[in-house]
């Protein structure tokens, strides 16, 4: 049996090295395509990198797509960020950040990192959506906001084996879509952050932290009150000091 093990190890090591190389090349290839103005090919390349999702029987496709949804959202968002970057320097920064996501953040499986993945996915998805499609149809913004919130929430709750993950994800998606429908009538931007993105990220982050601390039995009444107070304060400040005449869609 010893020779057999010795033969298998190099193969497994070679496959891992090749997989790592391909992950490193993906952000570089996306960058090159964007620079050549082949944006559609850049989007296609991100989707094709997830080919293993459909390399199974069709009945497994929905589960695989849901499991890889956050990674897909981040990848497509990076392409949008590169397209809208003001210089090649900023595009290279996105290349590095995408590589960091693929090599360090995405493979992690701890509860903290899974929660971080969900937060990054929702933040990047909403930022990219309102950056690229701010003038799109209202129903489109509402639907896509709800989908991004759903996939991010589902990714988060699945990491905790939450029995009501589907229900809670639908609730968060409905809340996100409702907020998007309401605020998209007056789309307000704080530099690169739209108001729906800012509010959903603030509330989502606060609720995720509260859930995480409660799961770890580290959530006291004082901490819960502090987080709720901070979230309400941020929401009130954003809504009160916003220039509601800034943009009407």
Fold and architecture overview:
This protein has two domains: 1-107; 136-249, no CATH class. The radius of gyration is 20 Å and the shape is globular. Helix 3 runs antiparallel to helix 4 (88-105), helix 5 (111-132) packs antiparallel against helix 8 (195-215) and helix 8 packs antiparallel against helix 9 (221-240). It is an all-alpha fold. The model is unreliable at 1-11 (pLDDT under 50). A two-stranded antiparallel sheet has the order 1-2. It has helices at residues 2-35, 39-48, 61-84, 88-105, 111-132, 138-158, 165-183, 195-215, 221-240; strands at 189-190, 193-194. The protein contains nine helices and two strands, in the order αααααααββαα.
């Amino acid at each position: 049996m010893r020779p057999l093990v010795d033969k298998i190890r190099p193969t497994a090591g070679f496959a891992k090295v090749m997989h790592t190389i391909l992950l490193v090349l993906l952000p570089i290839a996306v960058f090159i395509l964007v620079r050549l103005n082949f944006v559609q090919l850049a989007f296609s390349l991100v989707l094709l990198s997830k080919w293993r999702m459909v390399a199974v029987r069709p009945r497994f496709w929905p589960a695989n797509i849901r499991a890889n949804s956050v990674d897909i959202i981040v990848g497509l968002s990076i392409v949008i960020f590169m397209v809208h970057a003001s210089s090649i320097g900023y595009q290279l920064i996105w290349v590095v950040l995408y590589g960091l996501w693929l090599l360090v953040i995405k493979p992690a499986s701890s509860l903290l990192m899974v929660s971080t993945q969900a937060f990054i996915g929702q933040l990047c998805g909403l930022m990219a959506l309102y950056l690229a499609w701010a003038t799109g149809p209202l129903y489109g913004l509402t639907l896509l906001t709800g989908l991004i919130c759903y996939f991010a929430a589902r990714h988060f709750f699945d990491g905790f084996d939450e029995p009501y993950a589907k229900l809670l994800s639908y609730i968060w998606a409905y809340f996100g879509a409702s907020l998007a429908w309401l605020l998209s009538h007056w789309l307000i931007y704080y530099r690169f952050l739209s108001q729906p993105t800012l509010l959903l990220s603030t509330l989502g982050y606060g609720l995720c932290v509260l859930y995480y601390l409660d799961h770890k039995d580290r959530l006291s009444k004082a901490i819960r009150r502090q987080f709720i107070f901070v979230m309400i304060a941020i929401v009130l400040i954003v809504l009160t000091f916003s220039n509601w005449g800034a943009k009407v869609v």
